[in-house]
Design goal:
The protein is an alpha+beta fold and about 260 residues long. It has helices at about 5-20, 35-50, 65-85, 95-100, 120-125, 130-135, 165-175; strands at about 55-60, 85-90, 105-110, 110-115, 140-150, 150-155, 160-165, 180-185, 190, 195-205, 210-215, 220-230, 240-245, 250-255. The protein has seven helices and 14 strands. Helix 1 (about 5-20) crosses helix 2 (about 35-50). The longest helix has 18 residues, at about 65-85.
Length: about 260
């Protein structure tokens, strides 16, 4: 009204925003009659009808229930594409960041840790904070000592020696590292009879489409293995042997927590 928009166009814009956010049946209600999640969607709609060049959103989905959050997240992605507007979106939910962002910036205590495309951050986290934050379940990070034998290098964890790929071994030796953190994502760990890492299953989390095997190493460090639901499940208490593809292994300097790259 204050911008001089015609009545018919105002009604059309309100109707479009209301339909996009599931507010059509609530337009006749007063603010006091709305829930916290409904008020949050109204605030989004008030921004949308102005069609700005940029949106600044600070956890706009935080008060929504799980089902509505998934629905609204998809609608916001569609809305951003339709409006071709820049959106700066603050969230503590890594799923929102990974699915909605074209570039994500990870902050820790006000310090920028990494900026990149979501998949690039997932594949090559810059440090331990990012590695442990991005991913659900998060990356397994195992602390150990670097053992160098000529051109070869391994990570000693308790009584186990985990060999490093040639590139990582050379980089760790080059940087004169002693304490390191070995990283591997749950989906890149496999149960194998000839696996080098021995672990005991303590909890099995069945999620329907997949299961998570929560395991303890001999020194009590925890690792999680992601397993497909159609694979025969082990039992809690079983001792298993694990292996990982060499190109899926990550290494971090335990002192600086920075990623080690070949």
């Amino acid at each position: 009204k204050t911008r001089g928009v015609a009545k018919e166009e105002r009604a059309a814009q309100v109707d479009e925003a209301a339909r996009a956010l599931g507010l059509g049946e609530l337009l006749d209600r007063k603010p006091s009659e709305l829930s916290g999640g409904q008020r949050q969607r109204v605030a989004l709609a008030r921004a949308i009808v102005r069609k700005p060049q940029a949106f600044l959103m600070d956890e706009p989905l935080s008060n929504l229930d799980a089902k509505l959050r998934v629905q609204t997240r998809a609608e916001l992605i569609e809305l951003q594409r339709r409006l071709a507007a820049t959106v700066i979106y603050v969230t503590h939910d890594q799923v929102e960041a990974m699915t909605m962002g074209q570039r994500i910036a990870i902050m820790d205590r006000g310090v920028l840790q990494q900026v990149d495309a979501p998949q690039a951050v997932y594949d090559k986290p810059a440090n331990l904070f990012v590695a442990r934050f991005i991913g659900n379940p998060p990356m397994n990070t195992i602390e150990g000592d670097l053992v160098v034998d000529g051109a070869d290098a391994s990570v000693r964890v308790g009584e186990m020696l985990i060999p490093l790929p040639a590139g990582l071994a050379a980089a760790a030796t080059r940087d004169s590292l002693t304490k390191v953190v070995f990283g591997v994502r749950p989906e890149h760990l496999d149960i194998a009879p000839d696996g080098i890492v021995t672990a005991t299953i303590t909890v099995i989390e069945a999620l329907g489409h997949e299961r998570h095997l929560v395991c303890r190493l001999d020194d009590s460090q925890m690792v999680i293995v992601r397993q497909a639901a159609d694979v025969a499940p082990p039992r809690e208490g079983d001792t298993i042997r694990l292996t990982a593809e060499p190109d899926q292994i990550h290494l971090f300097d335990a002192a600086t927590e920075r990623r080690v790259d070949p």
